[in-house]
Amino acid sequence: MTDQLTVGVLGTGIMGAAMARNLVKAGHTVRVWNRTRAKAEPLAGDGAQIAGTPAEAVTGADVVLTMLYDGPAALEVMREAAPALRPGMAWVQSTTAGIEGVGELAGFARAHELVFYDAPVLGTRQPAEAGQLQVLAAGPVEGRDAVTPVFDAVGARTVWTGEDGAAGSATRLKLVANSWVLAATAATGEVLALSQALGVDPQSFFDVIDGGPLDMGYLRAKAGLILGGQLSPAAFAVATAAKDARLIVEAGEQHGVRLDVAAASAARMQRAAAQGHADEDMAAAYFASFDADSEPSVAPGEGSSA
User: What does the alpha-carbon distance between residue 96 and residue 224 come to, in Å, rounded to a whole number?
Assistant: First the structure.
């Protein structure tokens, strides 16, 4: 197989659209589909072909790439694409689907004789747009030549975690990594909320930790979004973070581990979504520290930065 592929991309949200653009830039033929067609149509200007159905998007493709909301959504869309799937087609499954979800998707792949790659990614809007994601991948060695050009187009690095995509080793690593991301995001919001409640200038906190082991670039970045009132467009939305947090908690429960911080993060994200912040950056979980009727109209120090 040559390095120039035909790729059917199913799902053109924040991540899927960026990945599709980078596939086009790399010289691949890209056909895209999204349930809400308006989200896919701007990609025509980048050189992608807009498909009316999932089956149309994957017809004749070398690789199918799914980047959808969750496992059930990915399974539903692949069922719609089924008439155009052919035995031996490579399926790069990048949706964060959870351990149980990956098993169901792998079962679908077996039934349709697809070569299944469990391939979630680490990164948000900016690294996705820059083609600098980290791809976590598991799947058979034989056949990797078909998917490596896809990974190279969307990511800066591919970490192979196993040879059986159905085992979900890449998804397991993704859940571990996301548990840390969610914990750090929730803690950032609580630090700023407590600062506001106690009348402490947030900048004094950043001055105290500056350059020390408690300082962290991610803390600064998420705090900057809150303090600057720059929660839209989202790098990673509250609603999606809530879904991932639930998957993390479920994975812990299934393996006999109680994850109190992850459970609290899930509750914060769900509460922030219910308060109207579902489509904002997950840093907006900051607002979950306040009752809906007393939520601040702006964040503390809005207009400043961390």
Answer: 26
